[in-house]
Amino acid sequence: MKFRCPKCSAACGLFDRACQRCGFLLTARSVLRLYLVQARQATALECPRCRKGAVPIGAKVCPACGEIPTFRDLVEATVGPPRRRVRNYCDNAPPHAKRLAQWIYLLLSATLLWWLLGYVQQVTGGHWLGLAALSMLYLTASARRGGCPGAGSSPSHTTRRAW
Ligand SMILES: [Zn+2]
Ligand SMILES: [Zn+2]
Question: Which pTM does this prediction carry?
Fold first, then answer.
C-alpha cells in the first residue's frame, strides 16, 4: 500500500520511516507539526510595514523585517485594499449605476416597510398607531443620545450620500 508524502507528495510506502525523495520523517508527530505549520501559513496576514513578510496569527514579530505589528495593523493591511477598491468604485461609478443602486435601495426599503407594517398590524390587532407613535418617540430619544444602532449604518457609501 502506498500513500503520498505530506511535504513533497512523492509516493511513500506505509512502513517507510522517511520520504525517499525529501527525507521528511513519516511519524505522526512530524506530520502533525507540518499540518500545523501549513495552517499557520494559510491564516498568515501580510505585514503592514514591509509588505513582504506573512505574519502568522499569534506571532510576535514579522519574520521578514522583525517589526512588531499590532493585530489592528494586520487587519487593516488585509481589509484595507479591498475596502478602498469598493470606495473607489462607488466614487467613480457612472451616474446610471448610482441611480440603479438608489432604486434598488428604495424598492427594498419599501418592501421591508410594507412587510413590517403587515406584521405589526397582525401582532397588535389594529392598535398599532399609538405603538408606532411611542416607538418613534423612543427612536428619536435614542438617536439624540447617539445610541441609535441604525443612525450610522446604511447599506452603502453611495446610498448614504444620495439620501
Ligand atoms: Zn517527501
Ligand atoms: Zn514585515
Answer: 0.37
Q: Which residues surround ligand 2, an ion (CB under 5 A)?
A: 47, 49-50, 53, 62, 64-65, 67
Q: CA torsion angle for 6, 7, 9, 13 (degrees, to 10)?
A: -60
Contact residues for 57 (Cβ-Cβ < 8 A; gap 6+): 40, 43, 44, 45
Q: What is the CA radius of gyration of the chain?
A: 28
Residues 160, 140: Cα–Cα separation, whole Å: 19
What's the gap in Å between 153 CA and the centre of ligand 1? 52
Locate the domains of the chain by residue range: 1-42, 45-92, 94-162
- Cell numbers for 29, please give them: 508527530
Rounded average pLDDT over 108-131: 82
